[in-house]
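Let's do one together. I've listed all components of the complex below, 1086 residues spread over three lines.
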Amino acid sequence: MDLILIALLVLGITGLVAALLLYGIAQKFKVEEDPRIDLVQEVLPGANCGGCGFAGCRALAEACVKATSLDGLLCPVGGAPTMEKVGAILGMEAVAADPKVAVVRCNGVCEARPRTSEYDGVRSCRIEHSLYVGETACPFGCLGCGDCVAACQFGALSMDPKTGLPVVDEEKCTACGKCVKACPRNIIELRKKGPKGRRMVVECVNKDKGAVARKACLNACIGCAKCQKECAFDAITVENNVAYIDPEKCRLCRKCEAVCPTGAIHAVNFPPRPAKPAESAAKPAATTVQNTPSNPNTPIEKPIEKKEEQA
Amino acid sequence: MKTFRIGGVHPHDNKIYSAHQPITECPLPEKAIIPLVQHIGAPAQPVVEKGQKVKVGELLAKAGGFVSANIHSPFSGTITKIDSTIDAWGMRMPAIFMDVEGNEWLETIDRTPDVIREFNLEPKEIIDRIAEAGIVGLGGACFPTQVKLMPPPGKKAEVLVVNGVECEPYLTCDHQLLLEHGEEIMIGIQLLMRALNIQKAVIGIEMNKPDAIARMQELAAKTLGVEVCPLKLKYPQGGEKQLIDACIGRQVPSGALPIEVGAVVDNVATIYAVYEAVQKHKPLISRVMTVTGKSLKKPGNYLVRFGTPLSQVVELAGGVPEDTGKIIGGGPMMGRAMTNIDMPANKRTSGLLFLPEAESRRVEPENCIRCGKCVSACPMGLEPYLLAKQAELQMWDEMEQHDVMDCIDCGCCLFTCPSHRPLLDYIRMGKAQVGGIIRARQAAQKK
Amino acid sequence: MNKLIVAPAPHVHSGDSVRRNMLLVIVALLPAYIMSVVAFGWGALITACISIAACVLFEWLIAKYILKTQPTIGDCSAILTGLLLAFNLPSNLPWWIVVIGALLAIGVGKMSFGGLGQNPFNPALVGRVFLLISFPVQMTTWPRPLSFAGSYVDAETGATPLAAMKQIVKNGQSDMVSQLPDLWDAFIGRMGGSLGEVCALALLVGGVFLICMRVITWHIPVSILATMALFACIGCPEGMTAGQYVAYTLLTGGAMLGAFFMATDYVTSPMTAWGKIIFGIGIGFIVMVIRTWGAYPEGMSFAILIMNAVTPLLNMYIRPKRFGEKKK
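Okay, and this is what the predicted structure of the assembly comes out as:
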């Protein structure tokens, strides 16, 4: 009996002394911090993705607490709702920002972009890119090794084995920008999501002259500038033989899509067009399916090489 | 027998296919494309115009900076355009296109086969002629030769180390050059010694070329200050730092150039070009390249003028073999696999190797078993397994701490890895990243 | 002609493979195994077969059904683990103990860390030490060699020379010297002990073969044996000459097996030459400490496991000499 008592006493006293010591030391070396940092950090997603431009969620929280206005501070993952909560904690107005989404600007699907060699090194875009042009002849297009998929922390990217291109899951994409940095060819862009997710995108970044680009890939933008002329809102610029649609100016009229001879312009998330016999034959699929360039073999009526000089 | 002290591997040398094949001149093409980037550094600036007629040896493009080189016309004919062309890796490069007409040379060039032994030039004159002739290191790096001959202030060259090692498997062009033009090379060595104002030169030759060693020893006996250093067979003995270590026992410190230990290294092919430029007034317009492979019909050493399509050289060697899986520009350890052979020959192309498909594919990698073979094989004393892992995890700072910038891309680690891990792929990628970070930091410090 | 293949340099390979290395080690172990079959008969044969079969089976099962990866038994590492485990067991061990040892070796020692290349400890030794602690009686009942009479369970058993040495060293019983086997007998394996450790000659032949084939380097075995010899020279007990003691130290117990085959395991030994030497010295020292002052007569397994734990540290701090590095 005594033995048990002594053991209990010794253990208890040791524990008590240790606890007191720990408490004392913790109090002595406590770092004074603005308690609001913890509060802000709690409403942040906690993914530490760095999409905001800071080292992690804690760093963003510190920056928010220090800042005098929330202008320019945005958690791309949580978006506006999160920033509103942050604003509520700090007593500041959250600045509204358009939600963005990652967009893969390459539609060089397997059928349109024939393989000219076989890559046998590490499956890494960065390494393949530093070695050579890639398995196809397009020096600008997607390499298909999936560096972006590996970089995405939210599981929003996946490779489509049929097209060999990455697909963005818009529900999951938080526009943190990791994939943009991971892509050695700068194909992925963060674009405004657009009303109901609708937007017009030139899914090609090939800067070669039309003939060369066309030879490498049937779906390439050849810089013919037809879309530029068609656009009534000055939203399209053609530079370095490649067109770009400014999401701020685009009014989603879809005229450019219709004139594009190679099908490089894609209308995303639009409802299918009412079936008109002539037009629906030209582009049935690309209008309905978002992001997946599924219609590589769009027939092209006439050669377009003559136009390339304009660019 | 000497060799370098750290690491190294012993790949099968496979030189038997093209060894001792006499140097054969490749016929002139009808159309030629002369790239403006045939060297390290800025592209050369064209000085000719569309439609202009040029003779062999005429200046086509001037060096575009301090580290750059002149480019001369390898053919006579008409310039058709100055545009960009696609190299064997699908990348654009600026080039001069010409139609070849006849074979008319500049009168100043001595085309006789006579060996001209006498020279009476000042060092400055020799260096000027080398620069004018557009000579670059033909061993592979293509660093402009004249830059090496002008040591920075405070540094003094003591020894000229001549690279006749040719440690890459399969390649035999330097070997054949030593056999056929040993005497000219010896004169070239004396020219360089004069230019550098030094009295000592060492020729490093690996012992798998006994005839070349004997030939050069015989010639060196008659020449003051030149000695032949037979070296044990070990890859990468032809690496600049390894060669200096092997021949004169000095190790170039990390990040420094050979001049730090008083050495200047030049390849035998470069030295032959120096001889031709100085003694014969012939600019660098052609080089000897090895076209080889196990199933090639006529592997051999071919004298090719720059601008000749490689496919034409291959025709001469019997055409592309049926079973080809990989075509490599250069040797199998450091050469680059090409996507086509339409590219023109240039100062960089030291060889063309056709690997059969059965040997072309890599073996599926397994887990690292931490055997440490890559560590003992690395000639720079690095830890490839660690660097590769760090690169995979994008730990750039750690890579820098572990001296990734010392890596010479020799490929010993990947060659020796029993698990077939793609060590060098990752290390090379990491090196590029770390290099970028270091340059950015230096630029920021300057500001 | 098909599409050309493009990959970064180098485009040739030495032809070395994990499988080749494992097979060479197995080949190098064969002479010792043959000697052990000669010495212990059926027991050696059955124990080794059970151990190997169990190791391969467990690796396959765990990889397939627990880790859900492609089983990698093709690299022969499980066979080697099984063989090495058997080498460390007495030949008369009941079969179910061998199977438990194999399960521990493969399951806990190797696969729980993620398979080949990931394990911090030598799997065979993990299995062996587990058995040694769990079944101390069975694990230290050594059959006498060359006693072919009867089945393997009932074979005549007796103490190992190391147990005798322990008494000499620890208790100063110099009269035990007469119990030690003849030096020549110890060299060719006519003494009690684990299945594979008895014949120093055969192990030496195998070890030299491995060094010649460049499967292992000399650093680890030489530094282990040299450290043990040096320690024995200094700590020679009464009743023996220093030479005798050194010879017994090196020839008995697991010294040879441990130095050439167990400590040199790629995965659990350091990468650099100096790292390997320090690793070897550490093992040699710990073995001798355990043999001289510890509770067990033999400490090779413990010594190697302890130094296995130090290996990551050695890899981190002992860097190879860089090219052109100035001497400090």
